[in-house]
Amino acid sequence: MAEHIDTGKKGENIAVVFLEQKGYQIIEKNWTNKKFELDIVAQKGNILYVIEVKTRHSNYLGEPQEWVSKVKQQHLVKGANAYVLLHNLDIEVQFDIVTVILQGEKHLVYHIEDAFYARL
Predict the structure, then answer these.
(1) Which residues of the chain register pLDDT less than 50?
(2) Class for domain 3-116, per CATH?
(3) Which residues face 40 on adjacent strands?
(4) Predicted TM-score of the model (pTM)
C-alpha cells in the first residue's frame, strides 16, 4: 500500500480513539457513496458530526487543516447531505476537522470544532 494511504489510515485510527475518549460515538469510518467519502461520521448528543481527518508527518508545508479547501468543504457538505438523506435523519450536522501530526511513535492531535459551515 502507498505510504500516504498508510499515513492516512494511521491518522484516522488515532482520530477515532481521540474522539471516543471525548465521548463521541463513531457511527461510520470511511463511509462512501458514489463519489462521496466521509472520513468519520460520529454522534454526540443530538448532533451528527462529519469529521475530516488530515494527517501529516510535519507541518513543514503548512498546517494540515489548510489542505481542506473550499472545494473539499463543498464536497463534504454534499456527502453529508447524501448521508442524511440515505439514512432519513432529522438531525443537526456539524463539520469538524481533526489533524494528526505523526512524530515517530508520538503524535499531536488537534480537534477543530465547527471548522466550516455548510454552503452548497
Answers:
(1) 1
(2) alpha beta
(3) 29, 51
(4) 0.88
